Amino acid sequence: MSLAGKVAVVTGATRGCGRGIAVELGAAGATVYVTGRTTRQHQSPMGRKETIEETAELVSAAGGVGIPVQCDFYVVSDVDALRDRVLADHGRIDVLVDDVWGGDKFVEFGTPFWESDLEKALGVVHNGLDTHLIALHRLLPLVVSQPGGLVIEVTDGDVDDYPGPVGIPYHLVKSGIRSIGRALGADLAAVGCTGMAVTPGFLRSEMMLEHFGVTEKNWREAKEPDYVMSETPRYLGRAVAALAADPQVSRFAGKTLASWTLMREYGFTDIDGSQPDWGRWSEDVHGGGLDPSTVDAAAYR
Fold it and tell me: What burial letters (b/e) apply to 10-40, b meaning 16+ CB within 10 Å?
């Protein structure tokens, strides 16, 4: 899965899936522009400690070239500056991964929309959707400048059915991103490029680990029975790297594919060597009405 000589831009690469994707693109040999708001000198409103410089260093350590560029994707001038930087350096983007989120502080899970805070609700939508549109509007010209470009939208979930207590704003953002992936599949095919969307399973990101009060060393101790099927952000990263290296990737145009679906397609593993299959677990365990704590997770990893 060599991506040597390829130029990638990953938005929202400070932490989580964005970081995992950037590192795995680097491990495959790509030059990766690591973009986000938090640097060692400036912290975003999310208040997180992770920085784009750390991610870029991980990209380079993995074998690629990591280039940190501070960018708030809600600020058009920031995105213009990013575009101009990549244009001056390379003249093109081979792989664009649109992973901006920034909605964690605004989501009110389990709260009826009519009882929720409207400002927070709009914050979810603005940070989760407007940023994607701005990034695409400004960066797509560098992708479509030559055939073969790949654009991947990162969402949560591979179907549009309303999953319940996540709330309307969150559902709007994540289903909206899947819709963008479908539209890109059609629009980019006309210029010889490919657009699509991907989703992780139950993610073992920095924030999720903190939410469950565990670390990467003891995550199996989380008081959440389904967390035995969790995956690191690098798992989705390996899925994206496999897509980027696939000469027939256009067959997936417009689709939303999950980490576990792509694992079955390409055969990659998570960093611990396992192959968590959240889709099969959900179908068998939850679809079958089983108690997750009584099921042997090893059979699904």
Answer: bbbbbbbbbbbbbbbbbbbbbbbbbbbbbbe
175-211 pLDDT, tens digit each: 999 999 999 999 999 999 999 999 999 999 999 999 9
The confidence band for 61, taking pLDDT boundaries of 50, 70 and 90, is very high
The CATH classification number of 7-203+234-274 equals 3.40.50.720
* Tokens 């145009």, residue located: 253
Does this model's pTM top 0.90?
yes
Domains of the chain, residue spans: 7-203+234-274
| pLDDT value of position 46 | 85
Query: Is there a contact between 10 and 22 (Cβ–Cβ < 8 Å)?
Result: yes
